[in-house]
Every structure is written in C-alpha cells, then in structure tokens.
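Q: I'm writing up a methods section and want to include an example of the input and output format. Could you take the sequence below and give the corresponding predicted structure tokens, formatted cleanly so I can copy it straight into the document?
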Amino acid sequence: MSEQKDKIVYIGTYAGENPEKASLPFVLANAALAMEVEAVVALQGPAVYLAKKGYLEHVFAAGLPPLKELMENFLEQGGKLLVCVPCIRERKIDESELIEGAEPTAAAKLTMEILSAKATLVY
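A: Here is the clean output for your methods example:
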C-alpha cells in the first residue's frame, strides 16, 4: 500500500509585469518537488501569459534563475501546470498556443486540487 504524497498548490496571478512574483511560485514548486512533495501551479488572470509559447523568453527576476528555466525544471520533475480556461479566452489565447505540459483547467478541477492539498499559496 503506497502512502499518499503531500501536495501543495501554488496559484500564480502575475506575468511579465512583475517577474519576481511570477517566478516565486515556480521557485517554491521546484523546491517542493525536490523534497518529494507533489506540486501544482495554477495560472490565473494575467499569469496565463506565462504558459503561452515564446512568452518566457524575456521574463527575468533579479536574483532568481530565468523563469523559462524554472518552468522547464518544474515540468521535467513532474509538476502539474494548470491554466485557467476563462482567463486564456479573455486574453484571446488559443489552447493550441500553450506550451507543452500546460493543462487548460476550469474551476471545478482546481477546486479538487486545492481540496486534496495540504496548503494553497497565492502569488
């Protein structure tokens, strides 16, 4: 019988307009994954731009690794990246424009992730 893994959900609400706040959920999520804690990052509002192909090329926060690198590491380690469907529609982003590994998600799915997590943090 396998033990239930701890899980944390990070909700990101910032994109390139605030590179530091956009990067922090991925810094923490990568640390969680390294500690064998399941990590989910949900992008809402302007943060959905982070999941658009090509967007991360120019998002850097002083003192932190490039966000593109943080996101790639997060996905390679098995992190789950959820992207708000109403938010991308509002910004005229088609699901086909999302990076590989981004999972378009609505409220019910995110609510289930939050209910099954030990903690939820919003950035």
